[in-house]
Amino acid sequence: MPEVTVLTANAIARVRSWQLALQPPASLATITGAPWPTRVGASGGDVLCLGPSDWIVISDRREGGALVRELEAAAAGVDLCIADVTQSLCGIEVHEPLARDLLSKGCGLDLHPAVFTPGMCTRTRLAGIGSIVHCTDDGRTFRCFVARSHLRYIVDWLTDAAVEWSTPSPPPRG
Question: What is the mean pLDDT of residues 40-54?
């Protein structure tokens, strides 16, 4: 049965630019510890590239304000808007086995391992809710980010959708 865990990320920042041809400064990689992804749908560690000039950065090591200040310092002089969205987005991890099957029940993505490969991310609708889906580098875990107000609904939906894989209860005695 797939395992669903609510993430407790300390910080989530959104980084955007109005310049579509923007090349983010290499100094941003020093904050995240991984190359900054520039291809839409790619990730670099905890940085997800959602559009030509739109990223989210997830950090378990910093709080929101500190992450934003570090990103702003690293991007000094570059046309970037950096905002703390920690209180508006929250994450859920869905672990194998059957994570791909479970998520496929609620979204239109082709999650076959040959198509949605490790490190890929995209926006989609999951159970009718706008979501960000990220296949982590191990390819066995998916992180989904939704508006905080939809967290309980998504967790309940995933739990209900996974019932078919649960171990049946023994019949009542008596």
Answer: 93
